[in-house]
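Below is a filled-in request sheet from our internal design queue. Each sheet records the structural input a requester submitted and the sequence that came back. We keep these sheets so that new team members can see what a complete request looks like end to end.

REQUESTER: design group, bay 2
PRIORITY: normal
MODE: inverse folding
CHAIN LENGTH: 290
BACKBONE (tokenized):
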């Protein structure tokens, strides 16, 4: 069933018109381009199974990893896996998963730039957004990771409307595997040893309206992002939004998302492939500044 664009919240439409909407792109958007991109659960289980095959991990330990994943303790599972892998093999495995030569951007990646946002945030490691940028604008995409936070801050203070939307890769990029944020230690380092990152993201959350796309509501990366930025999320006038399939959140969860994070859920009736996400993006794009 097509998404009823008439239910789009007016504050969201107004934010697009002001050039104040920032998409936060999750793994569901990448999976619209190719199902080869793994979920967190799939990635961690595959890494553990590979470690067993290579003789770096006991089968019993891989079972423990699977149990941790089932308990949603993804960071602990990732930390345990990372400790077993030689560095070159660890980064090589991630490249095999996220640097796939046979997959390219889909229509939805390119459509995201039609919103004309001041910046695009993503927790994805792949380079589909960068590839879509190159296809749409005919030049290399400005894509930054947390280590480049000063550059992001400078851009946000000096950017002109004519500049195409750069990409801030919140959890690193497969184009530079050591930048990837996956384990418990990685996340601690991000929050406590990258103060510029926190300042930039808090600035975006306080001054912009964020639309979260391609998340299930239970995504570990989104939860970590929201928990880490809880203070900034609670001190804004406008809500942020997440686009979710119906019945993903119950009424209590919706209330907590609103009260704890200032995030309103926009729900849709999902069909195969979730084309409703593209429908929302293309509808919002009609209100983008010319």
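RETURNED SEQUENCE:
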């Amino acid at each position: 069933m097509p998404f009823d664009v008439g239910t789009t919240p007016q504050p969201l439409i107004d934010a697009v018109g002001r050039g104040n909407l920032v998409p936060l792109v999750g793994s569901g958007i990448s999976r619209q381009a190719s199902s080869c991109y793994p979920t967190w659960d799939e990635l961690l289980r595959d890494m553990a199974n590979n470690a067993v095959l290579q003789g770096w991990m006991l089968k019993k330990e891989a079972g423990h990893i699977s149990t941790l994943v089932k308990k949603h303790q993804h960071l602990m599972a990732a930390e345990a896996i990372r400790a077993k892998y030689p560095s070159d093999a660890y980064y090589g495995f991630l490249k095999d998963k996220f640097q796939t030569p046979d997959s390219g951007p889909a229509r939805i990646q390119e459509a995201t730039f039609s919103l004309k946002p001041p910046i695009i945030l993503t927790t994805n490691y792949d380079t589909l957004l960068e590839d879509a940028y190159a296809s749409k604008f005919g030049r290399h995409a400005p894509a930054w990771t947390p280590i480049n936070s000063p550059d992001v801050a400078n851009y946000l203070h000096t950017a002109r409307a004519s500049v195409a939307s750069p990409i801030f890769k919140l959890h690193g990029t497969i184009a530079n595997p050591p930048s990837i944020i996956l384990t418990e230690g990685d996340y601690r380092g991000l929050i406590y040893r990258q103060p510029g990152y926190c300042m930039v993201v808090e600035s975006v959350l306080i001054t912009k309206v964020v639309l979260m796309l391609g998340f299930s509501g239970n995504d570990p990366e989104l939860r970590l992002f929201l928990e880490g930025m809880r203070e900034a999320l609670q001190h804004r006038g406008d809500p942020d939004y997440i686009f979710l399939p119906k019945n993903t959140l119950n009424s209590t969860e919706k209330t907590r998302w609103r009260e704890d994070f200032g995030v309103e859920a926009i729900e849709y009736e999902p069909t195969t492939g979730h084309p409703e996400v593209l429908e929302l993006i293309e509808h919002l794009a009609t209100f983008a500044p010319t």
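SHEET NOTES:
- The chain has two domains: 5-35+103-285, 40-98.
- The radius of gyration is 19 Å.
FILED BY: M.R.
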